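Below is how a single chain appears once it has passed through the pipeline. First comes the sequence as given, then the structure the pipeline wrote out for it. We keep one example in the README because the format questions we get most often are answered faster by looking than by reading.
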Amino acid sequence: MDSDDQDTPQWDGPSKSALKRDAKAVEDLVWQLLELGDADLPKLEVGEEVRAELLLLRAIDARGGQRRQIRHLAGVLRKREDDVQWLRDFLAGNAAEQYAANARQHELEAWRERLVTAHDAAATYAEICQRWPLLDHKRLRNLQKSVLANGDKKAYREIFRLLRSAADDAAG
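Resulting structure:
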């Protein structure tokens, strides 16, 4: 038995299951790339072959064709570990940016809700004026009154735009 153990070559590479998991992870990465917006595509720093395959994938409408192209592009990417890592980092950063933008929007929506709630309106108006001193306070007050008195939807949306503009000015 000992001689049989010595004759059998030892495999030191990844298991077949690990290779399948890695291939599936790259395929999932390609699905995420497919869902990217048009504005994000020029930001991708990948080789011309990968870019061409991705553009071809985005042009395919048929679901079966998309799946085949995704598997093909995943195969191309598996040969380019640097591109795969860069794309993972890009998508992680993109997700973080999206999360931050969503959090900012939710915060501004919360300010707006507090501003147009009758029991909290005056205190919230004072906080907003203190937080964003460059904001057009007179316009904000008029919009607030319109929403409180009439339930004006247009003024309600305009309050958000005004708050977003003030937040952008303060951040930039």
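Residues 15-79 form one domain.

See the next section for the split statistics.
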